[in-house]
Amino acid sequence: MTSLDADTARPVAASAALFARALDVTPGGVNSPVRAFRAVGGTPRFMARGSGPYLYDVDGNEYVDLVCSWGPLILGHAHPEVVDAVQRAVSSGTSFGTPALPEVDLAAEIVARTPVEQVRLVSSGTEATMSAIRLARGFTGRDLVVKFAGCYHGHVDSLLVAAGSGVATFGIPGTPGVPQAATASTLVLPYNDVAAVTESFAFYGDQIACVITEAAAGNMGAVAPAEGFNESLSRLCREHGALFVSDEVMTGFRASRSGYWGLDGAVEGWEPDLMTFGKVMGGGFPAAAFGGRKDVMAHLAPIGPVYQAGTLSGNPIATTAGLTTLRLATDDVYARLDEVAGTIAGLVSDALTAAGAPHVVQAAGNLFSAFFVEPDEVPVVRSFDDANRQALHRFKAFFHSMLDQGVYLPPSAFEAWFVSAAHDDQAIDKMAAALPRAAAAAAAARPDEDA
Ligand SMILES: *Cc1c(COP(=O)(O)O)cnc(C)c1O
User: Quick one: DSSP state of residue 219?
Assistant: First the structure.
């Protein structure tokens, strides 16, 4: 572990000391696995502060942040208006355990931006997908759930099969602690494979409660749905009386003001039956939601029999942060996000090409990532199998070089990269300046360094 740190020109002593303390009191020293740097090695950086496009660690190092808290921070860190709104909300009380105004305003904003008619607010994306699945099963009276390999929907028991994100990062095939009964009712199909979905419906059509998919896959790196893929899922579900659940926890209010649906469904004229949201809608606080048609949502308690609840659901601070963020997320913000994402993706691809590092840079809306695959073999990454053909040692070398030069990338080759509207030209220039050396490191990396 320390051999990688030994190469760094930057101080890491304070992070290393905190990590040692954390390892004593928390498994792996982290509260979410990918943060531990185990896929890339070295010491996880403990952050002390964020401002606009930058993160600052406890050793005083500055980083251009290309993670943005894994998606939520589309306005950048510590946006003054969000901070101000939160401070005012906090001074009026942190939680009431009763209905309150900001949760109604946030629900109305979500309903206005998306095809859902109603939402129920929860505290994490995991709760949102878990509750959406329960509702789909309760509504249809069926048990089977179809999901796609490489898609991650939070750590819901029945969805932790062939999952992306941390599950992919650590190559965990299934997860001990999840009973077989929980996954026995999950059908895992290859992403972007309509024929496989059609076949599954032919066999199990009257048993399938729902198909759940990421609106665009972002948890195996950025993999856009093939033309018409989501539309086909929507149609097949309708034909067989199943519900189509579009998980927009990552893409919602980021890929466009209406999420990824704004880029495909809104144009093609179809709507998911249920949608899940999180990340951006919490403005950096724990808030998430699931929503859909009123006749489906009417099956939820207290008006229907499907139970779902949460002590801090609709929390006034989280909903204030989310609402303020969404109100500031104007068309200009989305235009800037697209521009920044396109610029950075182009710069990364150019640098890797110039250095002779085999790669494919892909985008799904303004989500993007670099895959270290051989473009002759995998010209486009369309599935988890494709994503798994990456030369992980190249990513590792690239990641550490960027980190050492002050650019914070996701510490895994199976994650999308995120930008914010606060990423100004100066931040982009700093990122660009780091690329040649990092690209050369990726090109020179050898698998046997992967110990
Ligand atoms: C992040 C994510 C989740 C889980 O959200 P948490 O808030 O981490 O529980 C679910 N689905 C998708 C698509 C995500 O990206």
Answer: B
String of DSSP letters for 52-68? BTEEEETT--EEEESSG
What is the layout of strands, in order, in the sheet containing 288-292?
Answer: 118-122, 288-292, 274-277, 243-248, 208-214, 144-148, 186-189
Q: Is 200 in the pocket of ligand 1 (CB under 6 A)?
A: no
Non-local (6+) Cβ contacts of 67 within 8 A are 408, 409, 410, 417, 418
Cα 11 to ligand 1 centroid, rounded to whole Å: 32
Is residue 137 in some structural domain? yes
Helix (H, G, I), strand (E, B) or coil at 367: strand
63 is catalytic: no
Residues 139 and 207 in one domain: yes
Residues 20-40: tens digit of each pLDDT = 999 999 999 999 999 999 999
Our answer on whether the CB atom of 260 is closer than 6 Å to any ligand 1 atom is: no
Residues 260, 195, single domain; the answer is yes
The pair of structure tokens assigned to 358 is: 């085999």
> Is the C-beta atom of 128 inside 6 A of ligand 1?
no
Query: Which domain-ending residue is among 297, 328, 359?
Result: 328
d(CA 85, CA 399): 35
- For the question of residue 206 being annotated catalytic, the response is no
Alpha-carbon distance 176 to 306, whole Å? 28
Find out whether 419 and 366 touch, Cβ atoms under 8 Å: yes
Neighbours of 49 (CB within 10 A): 13
| Domain that includes residue 356, residue range | 330-445
Close Cβ partners of 361 (under 8 Å, ≥ 6 residues apart): 345, 346, 348, 349, 352, 368, 369, 370, 371
pLDDT in tens, 400-424: 999 999 999 999 999 999 999 999 9
For the entire predicted model, the pTM comes to 0.96
User: Does residue 346 share a domain with residue 265?
Assistant: no
Pairing of strands 288-292, 274-277: antiparallel
Dist. CA 223–CA 388, nearest whole Å: 13
